[in-house]
Each structure stands twice: as C-alpha cells, then as structure tokens.
Specification:
By secondary structure, the protein is an alpha+beta fold. It has four helices and twelve strands; from the N terminus they run ααβββαβββββββββα. The N and C termini lie far apart (about 60 Å).
C-alpha cells in the first residue's frame, strides 16, 4: 500500500512540473497555435514565369479558403496544402480590388476552420501572432505587436515577422481572435531583410467584403 501511495504522489509531481516548464505566455501561444494552425493552408500557384506562394485560411467546412488576391491573380494550377500535408487543386471563386480572394477545394476531409474576430477594438502596443508559410516554411508562427493602425488606408501595421509567403494568413491576438489578414511588407531592399514593418487588412473590412459578395459572417 505504501508503494502505491508513493508512486501516485510522484506521478502527480511529475505532471505538474511538466506544465510549469512553460511560462504562461508560452502556454498561451502554444494553445493559440494548436487551435488555429490546422485551419491554415499553404498555397502554390503557377505563373507564366514561376510560382506564386502564399497562405490561406479555411473559413467553412465546405472547403472555402480566404487568401490575398495577389497570391492567385493571373495564376493557374493552384495547389492548396493542408496542415496534414494533403494537397488539393483549388479554383478561384471570388476576387475583389481590396486584395481579397476566395478559393474552393473539393474534399471529403473533416476540415478545421478559423473564426473571424473583431478588429474594432485593437490597440497599438497589443501583442499579436502571425501564422503563415514564409519562403515555404509551412506553419510558421511569429510574434510581435500592433505597431500602428492606419485608418485612412485601412491597414494594421505590425512588427510580427511577415515575409514572402505569409500573404493571406491570419494576424491573431493572444486570445486567439483573428483580427487581420496579412497582406504585405515594407520592402525597400527587395527582400534582402525583414525590417519589421508588415501590414494586414483589418478583419472587419474583410467581413464586409465577404458579406457583400458571397457569404455571411
């Protein structure tokens, strides 16, 4: 009986120590990533002179994917890769001049989806996360803050690392709320370096586009 009690106590201590090995902020980031990354896809689209690569967010169980229009504009043979490595051909079903596009894949898989949040109350200095496929490194998580909100151009500026391949991916609060769709970086040296100035389209503007064109949120 004594041996059983000691084993039980020791196991309890081991489990608690494994949890405490992460700081609270780390646990939070892990939780958000594990929740959202399964709904993020990599996009590769054929251009006349190469390949356009980006990121997409699955927004419904029927395989509708939100991304940036410039990722798929004038492209053919669009391929989408899910987080589990499964690939599908996609077709463009909607585009618009605000750099938003919707793709459709046909699959019988049970798809994970993102939930579009609310960008109305975001604040400069607030921590954010970005998930995407920079330079083909699928499922990459980066962290930063909201650096500026440009109300005139309707853009969120962030220093969370955004690189070629991140376009179309989500900008997320530490509460797991998708508040933007990553779009571009300030690029004065032609991709030689990431200088910490990236831009996202506020998710409320994206929802307006979707509501006007295809699907209600």
């Amino acid at each position: 009986m004594l041996k059983r009690i000691i084993i039980t106590i020791c196991c309890g201590i081991f489990i608690n120590l494994s949890v405490l090995s992460y700081e609270q902020e780390e646990l939070n980031n892990i939780t958000v990533y594990e929740k959202i990354n399964p709904a993020i896809v990599a996009i590769d689209a054929e251009l006349p002179i190469g390949v356009s690569s980006g990121t997409g967010c699955i927004i419904n169980k029927n395989g509708l994917i939100l991304t940036s229009n410039h990722v798929v504009e004038n492209c053919k043979n669009i391929q989408v890769t899910l987080y589990n490595g499964h690939t599908y051909k996609a077709k463009v079903v909607k585009t618009n001049n605000s750099d938003i596009a919707l793709l459709q894949i046909d699959t019988k898989e049970e798809l994970n989806i993102i939930s579009l949040g609310n960008s109305e109350n975001i604040k400069v200095g607030q921590k954010v996360l970005a998930i995407g496929n920079p330079f083909g490194f699928n499922g990459t998580l980066t962290q930063g803050i909201i650096s500026r909100i440009d109300y005139v151009k309707d853009k969120i500026q962030t220093d969370a690392a955004i690189n070629p391949g991140n376009s179309g991916g989500p900008l997320i609060t530490t509460n797991g709320e998708v508040v933007g769709i990553n779009q571009s970086i300030y690029n004065p040296d032609n991709n030689i370096s990431n200088i910490g100035i990236g831009f996202a389209i506020p998710i409320n503007s994206v929802k307006e586009i979707l509501n006007n064109q295809v699907i209600k949120f």
